[in-house]
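P.,

For your records, the input lines for the assembly:
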Amino acid sequence: MRQQYHEELADINNCLVEMANTVGSAMSKATTALLDADVALADLVIAGDEQVDAARESLEQRCFMLLAQQQPVATDLRTITAATRIVADLERMGDLAVHVAKVARMRFPDHAVPLEVRPIFLEAGHVAERLVAQTATVIAKLDVEAAGRLEADDDLMDQLHRQLFRELLSKDWPHGIEAAIDVTLLGRYYERFADHAVSVARRVVYLVTGEREMQNMS
Amino acid sequence: MRQQYHEELADINNCLVEMANTVGSAMSKATTALLDADVALADLVIAGDEQVDAARESLEQRCFMLLAQQQPVATDLRTITAATRIVADLERMGDLAVHVAKVARMRFPDHAVPLEVRPIFLEAGHVAERLVAQTATVIAKLDVEAAGRLEADDDLMDQLHRQLFRELLSKDWPHGIEAAIDVTLLGRYYERFADHAVSVARRVVYLVTGEREMQNMS
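Structure tokens returned:
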């Protein structure tokens, strides 16, 4: 019984890593769809969200069953608690990739992103990819140091977000209100994506160290 | 033991209702702070979020303890599962009230919301208040019909959101990009607030009826 329990826990962890990779891939595709006005790719991302939602339902149910059947205490209880929160963050990251894809779809065949801010979104896409790859590593290896490195990329995302607003508010923004709305919402989607990645990493750190407060991480 | 368990479950439910009322009150105050450029009220909302976060932590822990200690099955398992998700939605609604308050604070002593769209935000505030009051009723009484009525107000919020974009994109929007950014983000905060309220109601319906799909509700 006990071994079966730990196998189930390990398998849930593997599924979380897989889910992180899936939403990372979704955000990468969404960024490409956005920058290339590639509507077929945008549709792929949108259609793929069903799989992410199903993964969340399944994983959450497995966590709750494990809690109810095995009566874990202490570390095990905390591990399963953390897993249910991580799976919620990851699902939300999938939603945000879909939001990006939907903006690309809505403006097709035009580009939603004007040339001036294209480099910012290209970079935001790269940072998002790195963040989610690091998040997967943090989950897979319970790697507290990798979690710390993730915060640096989150800071970078915040910088990109501020840079975006500077572009929008510069005197020579020539693209009007509609493009400004798109860019504002897109900026928010990338920022939230990064926030959730950091949130996952922090939960793992909390799990490993037992400390909610991480003085050196915020 | 069994009676104690049901008392704990009932008390968790009471706390969820209380939390719904708290985030509803936060959003009402945030709307007033926004429309009156009332920075003291905005600060109250921002400071109050700590209490909402603490309520989430506490309630979630109580749910997990109940799962781990009482090994519930069937309806009880579903009830506790739903409670952990509801508490996450409610906490997020509190965050969104804070986001609204922060926009009011950022633009103080100016008004963040131009006169043209003021009626829309006034109405969005009212709809948000009704939504959260209905949500509290749905949780308190496991009232499936009230949950259905909630969807109508969610539709109204979507209409207000579209009306907001029409105002932003009308030829005579005279307030420039910065106000457009504020209004875009504010619109999204109210829309997400409504989404989470509906999400809570749907979970309660799922709990009562055991049906994830509600043909007459979407």
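Two observations worth noting. Chain B has one domain: 2-217. Chain B touches chain A through 27 residues (CB under 8 Å).

Regards
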